[in-house]
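[step 3/7] fold_predict: job queued, chain A
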Amino acid sequence: MARRMPRALARAPIPLFERGLGWLLGGRVMMLEHRGRRTGLARRAVLEVLEREPGALVLVSGYGRTSQWFRNVRANPEVRVWTGAVRGAPGCAEVLPPEEARQRLQRYRDRHPRSSAVLGRVLGLPELASGDPLPPDIGRRLPVVRVAARPPGGCRRAHENLRGWRRTCPGPRDTGTKEGLCRRQTPRTRSTNWSISGTWAACLPATAR
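[step 4/7] structure written:
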């Protein structure tokens, strides 16, 4: 079981993000606002960014499937994002399939071995600190969530379109890249610049515009 960070320490960066000063913490963390699945009240959590891609931030639930923010976004995928100087941009959260989650975790560990080792020690997850291949079940124990810009049709419509889109790119395949991941080619969409580098765009099929 992952070790729990003291609540006061975990919440300490929240005021920085609320004041638009999240950029002081760099691009490896963000703040996610989600809704309580029972109360409907807004909750906020500062999370590590596993990956940034055009159109989305990819997050990992370090405390597994019992994490409150993870359980809340599964119940209600409509969220708001604070990243860099951006405050409260609307987004949609999508839980990635376990195998894709495992591949993204492996890529994160390959790219950031020191950060991964520190995270593994803090959370009591030796897999992140070792050099061995990640076990097949890691994507279920450490779920990965992709948060993308919310289109006008809302998150439900976005997820329906993404499911159809992924049928043309269902999973791992040999694309000649080091990771061997299926690279999705995204049509041009209306975009919102959310990321620090100004590359956050609504990474959705054209039908979600």
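[step 5/7] annotate
Residues 26 and 84 are 7 Å apart (CA to CA).
The radius of gyration is 17 Å.
exit 0
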